[in-house]
Amino acid sequence: MVLYYTSNLVDPPVTIYMGKDKYENDDLIKYGFPEDIWFHVDKLSSAHVYVRLQPGQTWDDIPPEVVDDCAQLVKANSIEGNKKNGITVIYTPWDNLKKTPGMETGQVTFFNHKKVRRVFVEKRVNEIVNRLNKTKVERFPDLLQEKVQREKIDRLKARKSEFEEKERARQLAEEKRKAEKEINDLFDPSMMKSNWRDTEVEDINAAEEDFM
Question: Rounded mean pLDDT of 139-155?
C-alpha cells in the first residue's frame, strides 16, 4: 500500500507519497520516476517520502512550501525524529538513489553524496502535518505497470523529438539549397543580358535613348 498526500499550497497542487513499510520502500526505490525527489530524516529511521514533480522539472523547481511539507511529513513518520527538535532532513533526486548487494530491505545510499541537500527542521508543525493528513489517500498501485507505461511515454516523446529534429534539419537543408540555387542563377551567363551593341552606332542620340 502506498500513501498519497497533496500539497495544495501551490498551484498546481503537488503529489507527495510514501510507502507503508520497508518492503514498499524498496519497490518505490525501484520503480520511481525521473522527476521524483526522495526525502528522509538524516541518520535516523524514517519513512521514505517522495514528491512527484511535473515531467521535465528538477529539484530546483520545488517550491519552498513543498519542501517544508515533505520535511514535516517525513519527521512525523519517524519514531525517533518525531520526538526530537532540531533534526535534519535530507533530500535528493530519485535517480541518485543506489541499492548495493547486501543492503537490508528499504535501505539505500547514493551514487553521488554531493547531490544531497539538507533542510533543518526545528520542530514539528502540527498545522502542516494535519493539513497533509486530511488529504491522505491509501492506494494499491501496480508500480511496475506504472513504470512500464511511463517509460513507453518517454520513448514515444523521444522518437517524436528525434523526428521533429530531423524534419527541421531537412527544412534547413532545403532552404539552403534554394538560396544557393538563387545565387547560382543570378550569376549564370545564360541568364545575363548584355548592353553591348554588335553594330556601330550611327545616331548617338538614338543610342542614349536606350538608357533613359
Answer: 88
Report the interhelical angle of 22-30 vs 143-186 (nearest 10°): 20
For the CA atoms of 182, 186, 188, 193, the dihedral, rounded to the nearest 10 degrees, stands at: 140
Q: Does 192 score more than 70 pLDDT?
A: no
Q: If phi over 0 gives left and psi between -120 and 50 gives alpha, with beta otherwise, what is residue 86?
A: left
C-alpha span between 24 and 19 (Å, rounded): 5
Residues whose CB falls within 8 Å of the CB of residue 109, separated by 6 or more in sequence, listed in order: 97, 98, 99, 100, 103
In the predicted model, is pLDDT for residue 27 greater than 80? Answer: yes
Task: Tell whether the model's pLDDT for residue 195 goes beyond 80.
Answer: no
46 closest CA partner among 16, 14, 71, 15: 71
Write the CA distances from 71 to 93, 111, 178, integer angstroms. Answer: 15, 22, 60
Q: What is the pLDDT of residues 45-77, one digit of tens each?
A: 999 999 999 988 999 999 999 999 999 999 999
Q: Tell me the pTM.
A: 0.76
